[in-house]
Amino acid sequence: MATFSTQKILNGSPALIPAITEKLTAKFRTDGYEVAVDNLSSGGCDISITKGGLFKAVLGMKTALKVTLLPQGSNIHFEAGVGIWGQQAIPTIISMFFLWPVLLTQIWGIVQQSQLDDEALSIAEEVVCQSQTTTPTATENIFCTHCGTSNPASAHFCCGCGKPL
Amino acid sequence: MFFNEEGILNIDEMVVSNASFKNIMEDGVVTDEEIKAQSEKVVAMLRDMETKYSAEQLAEIKSLLVESSVLYAVYNFYSIQNINK
User: pTM here?
Assistant: First the structure.
């Protein structure tokens, strides 16, 4: 439900999901939040982030910011919304609660006001970005067949001998 | 009364401490009889209000019930709509 969640497709390999999870966990724990991680059968991760006073308990169940990371082809689907601590889905008794939509809207308002969803997204994007700048690619350099000089992949002429590459 | 110190609706806390809810949920099973009894209780309360409150007060109560019911109905429709996407 996009109205009550922040969603984005991250252009990074699903292999980065554990690294993103680790970084999110470390950052929010450092900031005094309780964090719980559930690994999903799809290869994704469900991360619950909460703090007393910020997230209201509903029908005795602790609510949390739920960050879900799912593999989507060669990318990662990021979603941050409101849910129940430690559960992979909102239990029926809560979702059927007559005034749950009001509570959901109010709690989501607090999350957005404190920009927790944006913070989680920027951490995930940072991990993806770092992996792209540090991972060498096969097309990073090409070698001149005349003199053997290493050239950037985008070069049309050899920077050593000037011959066409 | 309706909101806690953070300005969040605390109706769920009232539900958890409500005698009817406690009695029904005590054994972890909800029976036909319990649903029927609770439904009758709500109807009886509404009938009682009709005799006690002014037309203006009743209009406010009615408006709240209708608006809440609209929210509940459209939220469920929205949820199903998103599942079917």
Answer: 0.70
